[in-house]
Amino acid sequence: MDAGSFLSALTPLNIAFALFGVAAGTVIGSIPGLTATMAVAVLVPITFSMEPASALILLGAIYTGAIYGGAYAAILLNTPGTPSAIATTFDGYPMAKRGEGDLAVALACFASVFGGLVGALALLFLAPPLSSVALAFGPVEYFWLAIFGLSLIASLSSGNLLKGLAGGAFGLILSTVGVAEISADIRLTFGSQTMIGGFGVVGALIGLYCIPVLIDLVAVPDRHLDVKEGVKSVRIGEAARLAFKSKFNLLRSSVIGTLVGILPGAGGSVAGLVAYSEAKRTARDDQKFGEGEPDGIIATEAANNATVGGGFIPTLVLGIPGTPPDAVILGALLVQGVRTGPALFQSGGGSIAYTFIYGLIIATVLMLPVGLLIGRYAYKSIVTIPKAVLVPAVGFMTIIGTFAIRNSVSDVIIMILLGVFGWIVGRFGFAASPIVLGLILGPIAEQGFVQTWIIGSATNNLAGMFFGRPISQAIVAFTLLSLIYPLFAARRKSAQLNEHS
Amino acid sequence: MKKRNLLKSMIAAGVLSAMSFGAQAELNGSVNYIIPFGPGGESDISARLQQPFFKEKFGEDLVVSYQPGGGGAVGWASLNGLSDDGQTIMGVNLPHIIIKPAQKDVGFTTDGINTFYMFHYTPDAIVVTADSPYQTLDDLIADAKANPAQVTLSGSGKASANHLAQIKFDKMAGIQTTYVPFKGTGAAVTALLGKQVKAEWGYSTVGAKQGDAVRMLAVAMEERHPLFPDVPTFKELGFDMVGGAYRGIALPESASAETTQMWSDMIGQINADEGFRQQMLDGGFAMLDVDAAGMDEFMAARTEEYLADAREAGLIE
């Protein structure tokens, strides 16, 4: 933590890299299908000819920008630009619908910067001790974490529990299609080569979220988003005030994001969802989550950007990538000849690591002006572009984006079919989110369960493996809480209603 | 007119071929190098190490992209439909391309993959944490004999190199251990470091990456790895195990013999570069040089061995 690394992060060249990286990352992240992993992977060869620290700063800046950029499409098009932004759609799109898209975009920027800073500061000061979190999570903890994630379906679909569960179960089935990740069995492909790769999460996100929006845009004559008369498109002050009012939510969500980011098997989507459900669970009575509640955006966006710093903790300390973009960056480090490990953080050997962390902090701070500027532009263009241009343009992007994931035409076909399916079942009140939750969490739950079962049977300790470990017990308790709480809240509400009448 | 053009282009082609590496094919812009897995694994890292040397030697960019899915099957099933002009190549892995088609129809066959070079392998190794009670391989064997099936070992995937190594070693040592498959080497190592399992069936690369945090009990090489002069080979300890996960590169089947030869020569040149060899060894990899000419023989021997092991273990019919 010497001043030297801070100063070397502050060279004009490094600041220029951070600025460029954040701007490029934000734009790439805002396009559904173009993920942070892809952006980082494409740029890795360029960094070979650069100083290791500058290269890392550029890659880290792109990564953090892309996670923020995912919020634009989530808010303005109801389509998560990256999987991390799934929960941003819940309140972001309703806000945009009623003409507050500019406020939502600005809020997302403040929350992302705050969350990013918390994650980066944890990386700076607490990396070696926090890395033990990654190791404390064994198969059974991942299993229960996934079950906890699935229990969020109950709180996300209040009043519609059966439909939510049906959607979740459907997502779980979809997640088993293709070659199973750890047993290598080929399942539910019905002999078709198209299905061998299974249902990719990003393709499913684009299909289930974006296609129904596009169909609705064509089907109804209204404008895409409402625009409030007389309101200037700069609502930075209002957003800052709202964010400050929710400082506790900001902090809690950032801490959740950092901790989940440290877990190599989880990632930004899980972090955002957990933070969202915590914000919802502790909501005041006047807050209506799911109908355009600013705190929903704050929770998700703070948490997903906090995973950036959090994810670098196991990457740099243990050499175990916290997220897929971290894996790419780890490979780049190896080529640069930088060996990861605790030694990277000890005085003397750690200058590259610290220059990088300071660079990440600088990039995160730069995201505030850059993000507000690009966000304003994105909002304006989505609102002002006529539908006849918007629909084909977005439709084109969904196809390119889906194809780009792994150059696969099957993925595009699956994406469109899922989209049409999602639109049809949406008419009957089935939301996209439970399906996507099942798809993302299914493999985590399955792997954790199978591994726990194998280890438990081998050591004749099945019950102890599943229920005897303290972290698992805590997660099980949270799961029960999140399952029972909506019922309890509903009962209290109806009791109150009875009193009034 | 036509005739003269033809003549011209023939002369041009002749001149070009004389200028290139003696073959009648040449690169035309950047090359797409598809890794049929996600980023961060051994396949990705070795491709990344090749990248700068390729640019330096042949002046073109080697662009690494990922096409994960189905444990590599999605990529390999698409390989023969890709452009065969030599601008697109794909990483291939053993035992994957031998075991997978033997299990079920996965859209490709082992013979249908035009592998032109096998450039390295990651030798199998048993890895334990630094504070593990297993000081030597004998300690682990003794524990497994005293407590059948209770010694748990993590590894990457099922019916994979790690899994086949576990099956083979258990038979040789007359022990019964429990193999716990994880998604990729990274997850298997995390489980080891977190003490979810007692040991890991991994590769020598794990020892290179984790340094002092782990200890390798033995590596499956002919001779000791230069990076780990203190780690014995299985052979030294009386177990005839040499091998691991082999990695190479393939072109679509329809690529011309000239293109295949050109690529075999180019990858061979990178493999011969001292700087590249050193970086690979520092990463814990072991070098291998099987070029296009020797590929059929190499593949036939590997196929026979892997299929016999897998059949015996009941992984394939």
Helical/strand content category of chain B: alpha/beta
Q: What sequence of helices (H) and strands (E) makes up the elements of chain A?
A: HHHHHHHHEEHHHHHHHHHHHH
Summarize the biggest pleated sheet of chain B: 10 strands, mixed
Low-confidence segments of chain A, ≥5 residues, pLDDT <50?
none
Could you give the distance between the termini of chain A? 63 Å
Q: Whole-number radius of gyration of chain B?
A: 21 Å
Average pLDDT over all residues of chain B: 90
Strand content of chain B: 15-25%
Which architecture of the largest domain in chain B would the CATH scheme give at its second level? 3-Layer(aba) Sandwich
The number of domains of chain A: 1
Sketch the major β-sheet of chain A: 2 strands, antiparallel
CATH top-level class of the largest domain in chain B: Alpha Beta
| Overall helicity of chain A | over 70%
The structure class of chain A reads mainly alpha
The low-confidence parts of chain B are 14-23
Secondary-structure element sequence of chain B?
Answer: HEHEHEHEHEHEHEHEEHHEH
Q: Gyration radius of chain A, to the nearest Å?
A: 22 Å
The count of strands of chain B amounts to 10
CATH-assigned homologous superfamily of the largest domain in chain B: Bordetella uptake gene, domain 1
